[in-house]
From TrEMBL:
The lineage of its organism: Eukaryota, Metazoa, Chordata, Craniata, Vertebrata. This is Mitochondrial intermediate peptidase. Keywords: Hydrolase, Metal-binding, Metalloprotease, Mitochondrion, Protease, Transit peptide, Zinc. It is found in: Mitochondrion. One of its GO terms (molecular function) is metalloendopeptidase activity.
Length: 688
């Protein structure tokens, strides 16, 4: 109920403590504008050069991570969590004694903020900080805050303080729409945590939630563990593609872009080889989620998870996925035949199409069809040029400029991290984005967005500025050459920056509903919409987007895993059956792809959200931006109707406000299918 869920890739992987939504608009006139700073400098140059170190700051005061004084050392996490828990106790006492009214909601939100500011920050540090001591301290803080929150979720006295407000019709009618919605969201979070149960069952709900959190963390760690094989079992000529340690070859990923078929095959079979402990962990996680859902009154975990989303129910999700699968079936066959033809052309001795083939061969087809190779297009996609492109786009669409700012000593966790100030032309400083873009040992491979601190209107009239981290895995610039991006890397950059802009512009009164703290199938809309901007000039074609079919398969598998229990077969047998129905390529024996499916944690029962969000983003793009991607009027409307509310408004109402109609499931399906067959001439004309 208190801490909002994290968003994007790994950023969303932890189960929400108090699930986040998002909030209101129109705060600009009531908040004092933040002025500009003389320490800001152009954003493009900051990303095209190697950092020169901080020699001038060696003797300066050491701040903590993200400017939090306590976090100058790992031990500071214990101080921060103890301070947060003490403040939480005081706020619980306060809200239980105050007369019901708007102040009740404000105190609830302050309670949420006090815990989220530690839990969200720790949630990032525990996976991203290069120093083990910081990671371990952050993990301990996450566990401590998470356990406390689960107890608050079933605190009857706390619940009754909110119930008194919502039970008084006259008081409810006097609340503004945003405050009323936030109150209802807090109440909803109580209810799905089992507040209505007797004391013994409430304790059972707390225990299940804590166990699910532990299992989720264990499963997530397992999804990234490498596998190893005795090196004599692999042909010697492919050893160089992997890490060799003594008598073993270490495989830490799928090597999907390798031009060597044997390397991709070996990586697929070794990396996805079933791990018995990881399999038990997944089965236990799914079982405990089902037990929790039934305990609090839902027939399945999916029914519990989809409350308040665009889809609303698992029945709607499966209807959407099955209709989409039917519409894509002929296209999928054509795509796979074309990919099979390319494989036959390049490797006639082994032309059978296998699951490890499509990413590589579709890229070959794309390059051949449009006569583009990485050596030709990468120099135009320097990271600095992409950041300047984003700056231009945000300036023309939204009146926003990104400035680089030198972080203080101790403020960032790695030398390559850049800090950006987000500044509006009339509203001033909106917040900060920390860009952790470059590869390093031990860093998670996923690209993602983390909320570190949510925005909210404070009692003194100041606005608490949002702080987020964007994490990518790009090569470092060299002394003479900037980081060069492929089109796929550039699209990922735009995607994550879409989440960041949502966080900056969802300037709600309450942090519980700020920015990306909204239903998952709406939260991905701004990020996916940015992909349309990234591809507007069609430097790289959208051909053979077989990932659509793959996503339908993943989403359907997710729904089945979180549907009726006990499951009708093992998770691997269900994987095989679902793959045969929705994907079109054969299951490979002795593999267990589901054990690497990290989204089962943060997006449990909600993986369909990528597809539904893409459908909404497609409709918004075609309706508002395809003719003129720099249209300021459309940009302001987009901010007003979609970004500004965060989760403080029903997601379908935001979609309706933007599109001026209520889309149906068929509309969503049609939008996705039409994306696969663009009118190329119209496309070019629109981009001129």
């Amino acid at each position: 109920m208190l801490c909002a869920g994290r968003l994007g890739g790994l950023g969303s992987r932890a189960a929400p403590l108090w699930p986040g939504r998002a909030g209101s608009r129109g705060l600009g006139a009531r908040i004092r504008a933040r002025g500009v700073s003389t320490s800001w400098f152009p954003v493009g140059a900051a990303f095209n050069v190697k950092p020169q170190g901080r020699r001038l700051d060696l003797f300066g005061e050491r701040r903590g991570l993200f400017g939090v004084p306590e976090l100058s050392a790992p031990e500071g996490f214990r101080v921060a969590q103890e301070n947060a828990l003490r403040k939480a106790d005081l706020l619980v006492e306060r809200v239980c004694s105050v007369a019901p009214g708007p102040q009740t909601v404000l105190i609830f939100d302050e309670l949420s903020d006090s815990l989220c500011r530690v839990a969200d920050l720790a949630d990032f540090v525990k996976i991203a900080h290069p120093e083990p001591a910081f990671r371990e301290a952050a993990e301990e803080a996450c566990t401590s805050i998470g356990t406390a929150v689960e107890k608050l979720n079933t605190n009857v006295e706390l619940y009754r303080s909110l119930q008194k407000l919502l039970a008084d019709k006259k008081l409810v009618d006097s609340l503004d729409p945003e405050t009323r919605r936030v109150a209802e969201l807090f109440m909803f979070d109580f209810e799905i945590s089992g507040i209505h149960l007797d004391k013994e069952k409430r304790k059972r709900a707390v225990d299940l939630n804590v166990k699910i959190l532990d299992l989720s963390n264990t499963f997530l760690m397992g999804t990234n563990f490498p596998n190893k094989i005795e090196k004599h079992l692999l042909p010697e000529h492919i050893h160089q593609n992997f890490v060799v340690a003594g008598n073993h070859v270490i495989v830490d990923g799928l090597h999907a872009e390798s031009p060597d078929d044997l390397v991709r095959e070996a990586a697929y079979k070794i990396f996805l080889y079933p791990n018995a402990g990881q399999l038990r962990c997944l089965e236990e996680l799914l079982s405990n989620r089902d037990l929790l859902a039934k305990l609090v009154g839902y027939s399945t975990y999916s029914h519990r998870a989809l409350q308040g989303t665009i889809a609303q129910s698992p029945e709607t999700v499966m209807q959407f996925l099955e209709k989409l699968s039917d519409k894509l079936s002929e296209r999928t066959i054509r795509d796979f035949e074309m990919i099979r033809g390319m494989k036959m052309k390049l490797n006639p001795q082994n032309s059978e199409l296998m699951p490890w083939d499509p990413p590589y061969y579709s890229g070959v087809i794309r390059a051949e069809r449009y006569n583009i190779e990485p050596s030709l297009y990468c120099p135009f996609f320097s990271l600095g040029a992409c950041m300047e492109g984003l700056n231009t786009l945000f300036g023309r669409l939204l009146g926003i400029t990104l400035y680089a700012e030198q972080p203080a000593r101790g403020e960032v966790w790695c030398e390559g991290v850049r800090k950006l100030a987000v500044v509006h032309e009339s509203e001033g400083l909106l917040g900060y984005i920390y860009c952790d873009f470059f590869q390093r040992a031990g860093k998670p491979h996923q690209d993602c967005h983390f909320t570190i601190r949510g925005g909210r209107l404070k009692e003194d009239g100041d606005y608490q500025l949002p702080v987020v981290v964007l994490m990518l895995n790009l090569p470092h610039p060299s002394r003479n050459l900037p980081t060069l991006l492929t089109p796929g890397m550039m699209e990922n950059l735009f995607h994550e920056m879409g989440h960041a802009m949502h966080s900056m512009l969802g300037r709600t009164r309450y942090q519980h509903v700020t920015g990306t703290r909204c239903p998952t199938d709406f939260a991905e809309v701004p990020s996916i919409l940015m992909e349309y901007f990234a591809n507007d000039h069609r430097v790289v074609s959208q051909f053979a987007r077989h990932y659509q079919t793959g996503q339908v398969f993943y989403a359907a598998l997710d729904q089945i895993y979180h549907g009726k229990h006990p499951l009708t077969a093992s998770t691997t047998d269900i994987l095989r059956e679902t793959q045969e129905k929705f994907y079109g390529l054969p299951y490979v024996p002795n593999t267990a792809w589901q054990l690497r499916f990290s989204h089962l944690v943060g997006y449990g029962a909600k993986y369909y959200s990528y597809l539904m969000s893409r459908a909404v983003a497609s409709m918004v793009w075609k309706e508002c931006f395809r003719r003129d991607p720099f249209n300021r009027t459309a940009g302001e409307r987009y901010r007003r109707e979609m970004l500004a509310h965060g989760g403080g408004k029903e997601p379908m109402l935001m979609v309706q406000g933007m599109l001026q109609k209520c889309p149906s499931i068929d509309d969503f399906v049609s939008a996705l299918v039409s994306d696969l067959d663009p009118d190329f001439e119209t496309f070019l004309m629109d981009s001129e």
